[in-house]
Amino acid sequence: MFNAFIVFLSVMILGAIIFGTAFTATSGFSTRFIKWYFGIFFILGIVAAILTLVGVIQL
């Protein structure tokens, strides 16, 4: 259970880092893009956490 939480947080931090580097390189993003971007990373984090919890991904 703890490994799944770590995987979820890692995916969310990775998304935030990628967003931060892209945000500083451009003039900014619309709120619609930001919602979709973090929504997609949230779903990826949940999927990765479930796969880790089930045992498909082992740390």
From TrEMBL:
Membrane-spanning parts: 34-57
Keywords from the named record: Membrane, Transmembrane, Transmembrane helix
Domain of life: Bacteria
Protein name: Uncharacterized protein
